[in-house]
Amino acid sequence: MTILFASDLDRTLIYSKNSRGTEVNEQDLSTVEWVDDKPVAYMTNKGIELFDQLPSEISFLPVTTRTASQYQRITGLFNAQYQPTYAIVANGAVILENGEPLVEWSEKIKQQLKQDCTTIEHVLPQLQAYAKKGFVLKVLQAESWFVYMIIDEKMFSVEELENLSNIFYEQGFTLSHQGRKLYIMPNCINKSIALQFVKERIGATTVLAAGDSYLDLDMVMSADHGFIPSHGEAVQKIDSLPPHISITQQTGVLAGEEILKIVSNYLL
Ligand SMILES: [Mg+2]
């Protein structure tokens, strides 16, 4: 029996200083990511311990919107001794197998992007009109896959998000607002579809999935058991809670620990 524990990383298992909350003392936190030798992401010590002791029947599958190189920075969790066999990065556009991208998978996504007219070249010209608005601080690209913006949250209204969501929805994109980042994600780049591929490849019998954002919702909903941190954007997108979905009681970095606690007890 193989149980797959597919989990988003940022704001689900690992947390920045801004998103981790204030309930946990510095000495109870471990750094899991550094940028230029500066700590940037954390888990609780207890969370790390639970993660390290997950039963061998449970295979961990990271599923992140980070690019491969951003993912590989999380050395506090995925150190030289422990590398998951598979990782889904770039929101599902890339599947790493033993650290190497599966070329046939990404080629399929590239063709689909062209067919759907949802390539970066299609999005960028449309964003010029918004670049003049005060809320857009930067427009960035995740390799050749998708566009995301760094926004000024104080100047960005719910109406603005709805307006942009509607415009891009009709063209085949999903928008996700996560703190200072606003993702414009082509629908064919989807964590859930990539997860299904890995599930079949390893012959997993059961999938547990966790995620906080709108981009995680399909994956969490289609799992046998799904977990959403209570602070997550995904919580707002659910009308009624299906019985196989749990929302954490805790928020911030403690929500990550709570999910790991439930997953580590799954077989008991
Ligand atoms: Mg997340």
TrEMBL record:
Domain of life: Bacteria
GO molecular function per UniProt: hydrolase activity
Keywords assigned by UniProt, alphabetized: Hydrolase
Domain (Sucrose phosphatase-like) ranges: 4-228
Keyword Magnesium: no
Pfam families membership: S6PP
Protein name, UniProt field: Hydroxymethylpyrimidine pyrophosphatase-like HAD family hydrolase
